[in-house]
């Protein structure tokens, strides 16, 4: 995972130009619509938090959870000429231990007054935050929360500093502190964060040719020669979220909960882009895994997926280009289950339909690389277990930032 993040960082730093907030002087053009940002933040959680445990006499006792601090890598993009920021924050270090941890936070910030040099700007927003709690030998309990965020940002050329605040209003969890006893856990509802990010401009160099019409003339000429269609290669970092509870687990181990989210995994894609109809064909490979473990029971769900998808780019809003399409996925599904007495393995292979949605940041149609965000949804991924009930693996995949290369353009346009 860290190796992939380092690769992203090196690549985008090579694309970096010194003065980042170009839209301030140059206006709201398509080549100034979005900018990448990379950085780190320190997030400290606080506020009343507590759980319960069984003492040596079998009685339930309440205890306080300590505060927690996390260091995170932040990858984001300012959009709409400095009025918004879409980001992910990936925890890499934790200070303190209370059984609670947060996953990859995905959020959106809105700046009523756009980010500008040497000025403080307030923001408000919301986030999608998977949280995890584990107590003793109990399950690693995962839930998606949707906290509110706010803060202040200060920009100086390529540097962006932020003081942020978060409020998780839904901070209660119903947790099995034993195989038979469920209690309420209260997690820290508030946090404060300090962050530093570098703003990176990757598209401004193409603006002059666009304004004088050279880009359009070249696009038309290359399109006539059929030189803008070609093969694509993509690499990105994804996660998956399981959406259907399991009737099988509810019967054999309700204290183990349900699969909620996978580990973070890389995604590799090969495809072909058709310029004239603005259509992408793609074949994507992922290996997805999730594990539940509680007391005397464990279950590991694995999926290796080879997905063919076709999607159409819908419109172009200043270089923001959404797409929508259909997919069919060859899935190799595997469930390994253990308890005190048995160990079983259940496999199922098959083709499953799905949906693909996302967007490219595409200032013009001559670039040799694009940045892409995509989501996939696969319903009805079921494995029939030995209880006669289904173990559903329906999932939503979220690839926040993907690098899409058109290698033939490196050779054709040099």
Mean residue pLDDT: 84
Query: Which residues form runs of ≥5 with pLDDT under 50?
Result: 1-18
Alpha-beta content class:
mainly beta
Judging from the principal axes of the Cα atoms, what is the shape? flat
What fraction, in percent, of the residue positions are helical? 10-25%
Describe the overall structure.
This protein has two domains: 2-200, Porin (Beta Barrel); 209-412, Beta Barrel (Porin). It is flat. Strand 12 (172-176) and strand 13 (182-186) form a beta hairpin. It has 414 residues and is mostly beta strands. Residues 1-18 have low confidence and may be disordered. It is built from six helices and 24 strands.
Detail the topology: elements first, then pairings.
Layout: H1 2-14, H2 23-26, E1 35-46, E2 50-54, E3 60-64, E4 68-79, E5 84-95, E6 100-102, E7 105-110, E8 120-133, E9 141-145, E10 148-156, E11 159-167, E12 172-176, E13 182-186, E14 190-200, H3 207-211, H4 214-224, E15 230-242, H5 247-252, E16 265-274, E17 279-294, E18 297-313, E19 320-338, E20 343-361, E21 369-378, E22 382-384, E23 390-392, E24 395-405, H6 407-412
Antiparallel strand pairs: 1-4, 1-14, 2-3, 4-5, 5-7, 6-8, 7-8, 8-9, 8-10, 10-11, 11-14, 12-13, 15-16, 15-24, 16-17, 17-18, 18-19, 19-20, 20-21, 21-24, 22-23
């Amino acid at each position: 995972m860290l190796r992939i993040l380092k690769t992203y960082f090196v690549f985008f730093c090579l694309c970096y130009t010194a003065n980042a907030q170009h839209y301030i002087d140059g206006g709201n053009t398509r080549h100034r619509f979005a900018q990448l940002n990379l950085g780190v933040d320190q997030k400290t959680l606080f506020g009343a938090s507590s759980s319960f445990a069984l003492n040596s006499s079998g009685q339930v006792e309440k205890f306080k959870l300590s505060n927690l601090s996390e260091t995170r890598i932040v990858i984001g993009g300012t959009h709409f000429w400095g009025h918004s920021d879409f980001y992910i924050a990936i925890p890499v270090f934790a200070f303190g231990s209370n059984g609670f941890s947060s996953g990859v936070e995905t959020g959106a910030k809105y700046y009523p007054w756009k980010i500008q040099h040497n000025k403080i700007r307030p923001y408000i927003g919301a986030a999608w935050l998977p949280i995890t709690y584990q107590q003793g030998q109990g399950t690693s309990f995962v839930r998606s929360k949707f906290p509110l965020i706010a803060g202040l940002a200060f920009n100086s050329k390529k540097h962006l500093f932020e003081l942020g605040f978060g409020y998780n209003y839904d901070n209660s969890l119903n947790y099995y502190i034993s195989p038979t006893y469920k209690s309420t856990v209260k997690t820290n509802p508030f946090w404060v964060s300090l962050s530093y990010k570098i703003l990176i401009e990757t598209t401004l160099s193409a603006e002059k040719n666009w304004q004088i019409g050279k880009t359009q003339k070249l696009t038309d000429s290359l399109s006539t020669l059929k030189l803008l269609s070609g093969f694509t290669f993509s690499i990105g970092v994804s996660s998956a979220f399981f959406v259907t509870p399991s009737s099988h687990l509810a019967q054999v181990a309700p204290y183990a909960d349900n699969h909620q989210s996978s580990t973070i995994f890389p995604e590799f894609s090969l495809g072909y882009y058709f310029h004239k109809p603005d259509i992408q064909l793609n074949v994507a490979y992922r290996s997805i895994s999730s594990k539940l473990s509680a007391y005397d029971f464990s279950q590991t769900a694995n999926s290796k997926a080879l997905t063919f998808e076709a999607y159409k780019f819908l419109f172009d809003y200043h270089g923001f280009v959404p797409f929508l399409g259909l997919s069919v996925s060859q899935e190799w599904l595997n469930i390994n289950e253990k308890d005190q007495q048995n160990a079983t393995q259940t496999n199922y292979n098959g083709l499953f339909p799905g949906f693909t949605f996302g967007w490219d940041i595409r200032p013009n149609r001559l670039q040799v690389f694009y940045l892409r965000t995509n989501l996939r949804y696969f319903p009805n991924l079921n494995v029939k277990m030995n209880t006669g009930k289904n173990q559903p693996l329906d999932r939503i995949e979220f690839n926040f930032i993907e690098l899409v290369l058109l290698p033939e353009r490196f050779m054709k346009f040099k």
